[in-house]
Amino acid sequence: MKIYILDDFEPTGVQFIQSKVQQVIPFGDPATSQWHEDAEAVMIRGSRLTADDFAKAKKLKVVSKQGVGVDNLDLEAARRHGVVVCTTPGVNSDAVAELAFGLALSVSRRIQEMGQMIRAGEKIVRPQLLGYELHQKTVGVIGMGNIGSRAARYFHKAFDCQILAYDPYAKPDAWADLPHERMSDLKQLWPVVDLVTLHVPLTETTYHIVNREAIALMKPSAMVINVSRGGLIDEVALFEALSQGRLFGAGLDAFEEGEPPSANNPLLSLRNVVATPHAGAGTVETQIKSSLLTAQQLWHVLQGNEPFHRVA
Ligand code: NAD
After folding, report:
1. Which pTM does this prediction carry?
2. Pocket of ligand 1 contains residue 205 by CB under 6 Å
3. Are 296 and 20 in contact (CB under 8 A)?
4. Which of 71, 107, 128, 132 has the highest count of CB atoms within 10 angstroms of its CB?
5. Is the peptide bond before 307 cis (omega within 30 degrees of 0)?
6. How far apart are CA 65 and CA 85, in angstroms?
7. Distance, CA 230 to ligand 1 centroid (Å)?
């Protein structure tokens, strides 16, 4: 059996699969360019597998993909050729929720802004640098899936925040152990939140979910956090509100133009914007867990079992 590793993985998963299978062709080996010829399984991250790839790879049985995004895979072609495709959802939830929390603190206490001022040797005028506490504030969580529900718990446990949960697709009894108020209408959420954090996929219904009308309803002291996907926020409206003091600040790990945003993105000129380059899952722990789960799932399927998370 031959397994090809088509992307650069954290070593834990590579070592796992090497301990099970003799012929593992690692990422970087020139032979990987010929993987179609005899691969029975591949481990991938961002590599693109097209209909042509699936047609050429006659022996391919399994594609084990690290992460949840499958836009680099032609799933229809995989199904047509009887190839199982599996992913690793949920592994990065703690890391992404932590980044939402970190961005919230950085924005609310102006941590990045003050750091920039100190480094630039600027005069510190304390009354002009007051931040907001998160303690007992009202936090709106849009999308209460793996990451959103964790972020909600962090805000509740750390700062005794009141959680307003908006997720029309979740079961009525979801998050029974988490004190929260379930919201069914975003128009009622915007005016009361001190902070809103976005944890939804980008779809037709979530595109610009934070739009000009939503921002107009929010308090000028409110903050917006997006560690999900660019396109959830109307960035032109956000820029106008932030630069005119109609919102306090924003923490953004995702941008409409993609990540990292270009250095001349107008939002980056604002001191009340804290920006990261889609770094939500960027922890050592997540890379180890994801790499290992990708390899374990591959081995599990090759043993004749159903994948833990099958997408094709
Ligand atoms: P998930 O599928 O577990 O949760 C998404 C939730 O959004 C679900 O509960 C779903 O019911 C809800 N939802 C869908 N449409 C909605 C709508 N219109 N209004 C309200 N709720 C809606 O996904 P997840 O793993 O929690 O990921 C959430 C987001 O985080 C995704 O956009 C994902 O791409 C992103 N993400 C970002 C990073 C990063 O590095 N920043 C890493 C992983 C995931």
Report:
1. 0.90
2. yes
3. no
4. 107
5. no
6. 7
7. 12
DSSP secondary structure code for residue 205 in this structure:
T
Instruction: Give the position of tokens 């995989």.
Output: 78
Give the separation between CA 140 and CA 125, rounded to whole angstroms: 32
Phi and psi at 166, nearest 5°, equal: -120, 110
Provide the terminal-to-terminal Cα distance of the chain, rounded to the nearest Å: 22
Of 93, 101, 166, 169, best ligand 1 pocket probe by most atoms within 8 Å of the beta carbon:
169
Q: What are the start-end ranges of the H helices in 81-199?
A: 93-108, 111-119, 146-159, 186-189
Could you tell me if the CB of 144 is within 6 A of ligand 1? yes
H/E stretch holding 179 reads none
Place of tokens 């995004």: 69
Residues near 143 by beta carbon (within 8 Å), at least 6 away in sequence: 166, 167, 198, 199, 200, 201, 206, 228
* Parallel/antiparallel/unpaired status of strands 181-182 and 223-226: unpaired
Per-residue pLDDT tens over the stretch 85-141? 999 999 999 999 999 999 999 999 999 999 999 999 999 998 889 999 999 999 999
Ligand 1 neighbourhood includes 134 CB (under 6 angstroms): no
Atom of ligand 1 nearest to the CA of 282: 40
Give the orientation angle of helix 284-302 with respect to helix 93-108, to 10 degrees: 160
- Calpha distance 106→310 (Å, rounded): 37
